[in-house]
Input
Amino acid sequence: EGDSTITRTGEVVGSVDYLAPERVRGHDPGPSSDLWALGATLYTAVEGRSPFRRTSPLTTMQAVVEEEA
Output
């Protein structure tokens, strides 16, 4: 009756600002992914800006993988 999937393989759901580096690299999530996202969220709450936000989602993901907050 229709497509029963919610997302397509490789599709990113949510904000890339809080996507853990291993998720950007295509690895499976784990507890460390949640902890990383929590840290990024707390940083945003305290500083008022995302630690890795750049001009596009692609450059933001690149910053997540290559830079330190």
